[in-house]
Amino acid sequence: MTQTTTCNEYWAATAMAATPKTKTPVTIYGEDGSMYIGHVNECGAKHGEGTLKTAMYLYGCMGDDNSHVLRWTEYTGNWCDGLLHGRGAMRYMSSNEVMQVVHDGVWSHGVPI
To answer: What is the pTM of this model?
Structure first.
């Protein structure tokens, strides 16, 4: 029989067993060029606090002032079983130091609320 752990159970257990071994973040590199730094659950899914940065891509038209601007998406916040869940901020970032906030607030199972 498989035991299912809810987010609340996870946080309660994590708070009670707050040792360096259970709080060590990991770094995961995705095949798409993304990078995640944060906590995972026993199945390896993003779970707890962490930051996901997508791969960079070139933005703009050739010859345009912004033709060499790199852009990426970054989410920093809470996760539950691989989904954005809890407090977190999603931003579009660029190499010319422009940041656009997509949503800074509460997420529920991957959806901003």
So the answer is: 0.70
In angstroms, rounded to a whole number, what is the distance separating the alpha carbons of residues 24 and 60? Answer: 39
Show the tokens assigned to 78.
């809470």
Whole-angstrom distance, CA of residue 40 vs CA of residue 50 = 9
Q: What is the phi/psi pair of residue 10, to 5°?
A: -60, -50
Coil, helix or strand at residue 10? helix
Strands 111-112 and 35-40: unpaired
Nearest residue to 85 (alpha-carbon basis) of 113, 111, 107, 52: 107
Q: Is the pLDDT of residue 1 over 80?
A: no
Percent of the chain with pLDDT over 70: 72
- Token digits of residue 36: 């995640």
Rounded to 5 degrees, what angle do the CA atoms 103, 107, 110 make?
100
